[in-house]
Amino acid sequence: MIPLSSNIFQCGMLWFSLLNIFCSLVSHMANESRPCPCDIGDRFDYGGRGQEVQVGHIKAYVCKPSASTDRAVIVIHDIFGWQLPNTRYIADMLTANGYTAICPDFFVGQEAWKPSNDWATFNDWVKTRDAGKTDKEVDVVLKYLKDQCGAKKIGVIGFCWGGAAVQHLMLKNPHLQTGVSLYGVISRFEDKHSLLHPTFFIFGEKDDIIPLEQVALLEQKLKQNCKVDYEVKIYPGQTHGFVHRKREDINPQDKPYIEEGRKDMINWLNKYL
User: Fold this and answer.
1) Residues 160, 193, 197, 254: which is the catalytic one?
2) Cα atoms found within 13 Å of the Cα of residue 63, Cβ hemisphere only
3) Which of 92, 105, 130, 207 is catalytic?
4) Has 42 been annotated as catalytic?
5) Alpha carbons 96 and 83: distance in angstroms, whole number
6) Is 66:82 a contact under the CB 8 Å cutoff?
7) If exposure means fewest CB atoms within 10 Å of the residue's CB, which of 56, 76, 90, 195 is most exposed?
């Protein structure tokens, strides 16, 4: 089993218009050649314990627990794509906690963003990768989980771009039971707050991409209008991507918050699945 804190590290868009808004909000932090300051962080040297499969028209990474389970979690990757070892590590962590975990290629064969890419081209790149248009792929994955994996209770988590996709799905998809959005861009939530399912929002206090003012507004709107359970949590001193892009052995000062974020994520899933 993979514990919430593991030595394995040592061996080892919402919508396009939303992203335009967010990039303008942080333009004072990023020069013109780097309009979207999203860092890949600490890339894990990790191969994964699952396997790649074909699910309808998309590829996916799937990891199943040794014991039979009817609980499953869809893992939605960030801009760095479904093959990022960091994301597969989290999927395997979910499996170690009793879930079938699946991380599909929500870019549907299009190239993931690379750290070596020119950030000046990011807006054009993300136009063709809309976090608000993942419904077709999610429907295919839901069918696979139910028909091939025996899943009856299905949740979703997502990081960054994937966190925005989770927000979209929690507003729209009736077939999911719960969601965890990890540092998903939220600036479009002024008029979109009627969640269908219990949702947990994880943010870092020092996230240059998501201002705390946006987080406060989100919480205010949810408190006024949301009829399902939700939680918004800010982790002190943490930057964008801290739950899946930081290694505890490299960032000992952040270790308690990395572990806390992962534990909170799993506890939320356990509660509603």
Assistant:
1) 160
2) 23
3) 207
4) no
5) 19
6) no
7) 56
Beta-carbon contacts of residue 72 (< 8 Å; ≥ 6 apart): 99, 100, 101, 102, 145, 149, 151, 153, 154, 155
Q: Tens digit of pLDDT per residue, the chain (273 long)? A: 455 444 433 333 333 333 333 333 333 333 333 444 566 666 566 778 999 999 999 999 999 999 999 999 999 999 999 999 999 999 999 999 999 999 999 999 999 999 899 989 988 998 899 998 999 999 999 999 999 999 999 999 999 999 999 999 999 999 999 999 999 977 554 566 789 999 999 999 999 889 999 999 899 989 988 999 999 999 999 999 999 987 776 778 999 999 999 999 999 999 999
- Known active-site residue 23: no
Sequence-distant (≥ 6) Cβ neighbours of residue 121 within 8 angstroms: none
- Read off the DSSP letter of residue 111: P
Residue from 273, 246, 92 nearest 260 by CA: 246
Q: Is 267 in a helix, a strand, or coil?
A: helix
Select which of 130, 240, 244, 254 is catalytic.
240
Specify the pTM. 0.85
- For this structure, is 160 an active site residue? yes
Give me the torsion for CA of 103, 106, 111, 113, rounded to 10°: -80
- Which residue in this structure is represented by tokens 């994520």? 265
Give the Cα separation of 179 and 158 in Å (integer).
8
